[in-house]
Amino acid sequence: MKQITVFGHATVTVSVVINVRDGTELSEKEILSRARKKFGGIHSFYGNGGDDKLIGVSGDGETISADEEVVFDDFMP
Fold it and tell me: Best exposed site among 26, 57, 61, 67 by fewest CB in 10 Å?
Protein backbone atom coordinates (compact mmCIF):
# COMPACT_ATOMS: atom_id res chain seq x y z
CA MET A 1 0.00 0.00 0.00
CA LYS A 2 1.40 3.43 -0.88
CA GLN A 3 1.05 6.58 1.15
CA ILE A 4 0.23 10.01 -0.21
CA THR A 5 0.93 13.12 1.85
CA VAL A 6 -1.82 15.70 1.32
CA PHE A 7 -1.17 19.35 2.17
CA GLY A 8 -3.69 22.00 3.12
CA HIS A 9 -3.81 25.47 4.55
CA ALA A 10 -5.87 27.48 7.00
CA THR A 11 -5.80 31.07 8.14
CA VAL A 12 -4.68 31.57 11.72
CA THR A 13 -4.96 34.60 13.93
CA VAL A 14 -2.24 35.53 16.40
CA SER A 15 -2.40 38.13 19.13
CA VAL A 16 0.16 39.89 21.26
CA VAL A 17 -0.35 42.21 24.23
CA ILE A 18 1.62 45.47 24.28
CA ASN A 19 1.94 47.83 27.23
CA VAL A 20 1.03 51.49 26.82
CA ARG A 21 1.49 54.00 29.63
CA ASP A 22 -1.64 55.69 30.91
CA GLY A 23 -2.27 58.95 29.07
CA THR A 24 -0.21 57.89 26.05
CA GLU A 25 -1.99 57.89 22.70
CA LEU A 26 -0.52 55.81 19.87
CA SER A 27 -1.37 55.91 16.20
CA GLU A 28 -2.38 52.70 14.44
CA LYS A 29 1.06 52.61 12.80
CA GLU A 30 2.80 52.86 16.20
CA ILE A 31 0.58 50.15 17.73
CA LEU A 32 1.27 47.73 14.86
CA SER A 33 4.99 48.52 14.94
CA ARG A 34 5.19 47.75 18.67
CA ALA A 35 3.28 44.51 18.16
CA ARG A 36 5.69 43.38 15.41
CA LYS A 37 8.68 44.14 17.63
CA LYS A 38 7.26 42.28 20.65
CA PHE A 39 5.83 39.21 18.90
CA GLY A 40 8.04 36.17 19.42
CA GLY A 41 6.97 34.42 16.22
CA ILE A 42 5.29 31.15 15.30
CA HIS A 43 7.27 28.03 16.14
CA SER A 44 7.08 24.26 15.73
CA PHE A 45 7.06 22.29 18.96
CA TYR A 46 7.80 18.61 19.59
CA GLY A 47 4.77 16.45 20.17
CA ASN A 48 2.52 13.82 18.66
CA GLY A 49 5.50 11.92 17.27
CA GLY A 50 7.57 14.69 15.72
CA ASP A 51 8.49 18.35 15.58
CA ASP A 52 6.17 19.15 12.68
CA LYS A 53 2.88 18.45 14.47
CA LEU A 54 2.23 21.34 16.83
CA ILE A 55 2.55 25.08 16.35
CA GLY A 56 2.46 27.74 18.99
CA VAL A 57 3.78 31.09 20.09
CA SER A 58 6.50 31.62 22.63
CA GLY A 59 5.90 34.95 24.38
CA ASP A 60 3.74 35.95 27.31
CA GLY A 61 0.42 37.44 26.26
CA GLU A 62 0.59 35.80 22.81
CA THR A 63 -2.01 33.44 21.35
CA ILE A 64 -2.66 31.53 18.14
CA SER A 65 -5.92 30.07 16.85
CA ALA A 66 -7.29 28.71 13.58
CA ASP A 67 -9.91 30.91 11.93
CA GLU A 68 -11.29 28.49 9.35
CA GLU A 69 -11.43 24.89 8.24
CA VAL A 70 -8.39 23.43 6.50
CA VAL A 71 -8.48 23.56 2.69
CA PHE A 72 -6.57 20.64 1.15
CA ASP A 73 -5.01 21.75 -2.11
CA ASP A 74 -1.81 19.84 -2.85
CA PHE A 75 -0.26 16.40 -2.44
CA MET A 76 3.01 14.48 -2.73
CA PRO A 77 3.23 10.72 -3.39
Answer: 67
30 vs 50, which has greater pLDDT? 30
Residue 46 CA to residue 16 CA, distance in Å, equals 23
- Candidates 7, 4, 5, 11; CA nearest to 73 is 7
**Residue-wise pLDDT tens digits, 23-34:** 999 999 999 999
- CB 29, CB 37: distance < 8 Å: no
pTM, 2 dp: 0.65
Q: Tabulate helix, strand, coil % of the chain (nearest 5).
A: 15, 45, 40
**How many CA atoms lie within 13 Å of 29's alpha carbon, on the beta-carbon side?**
0
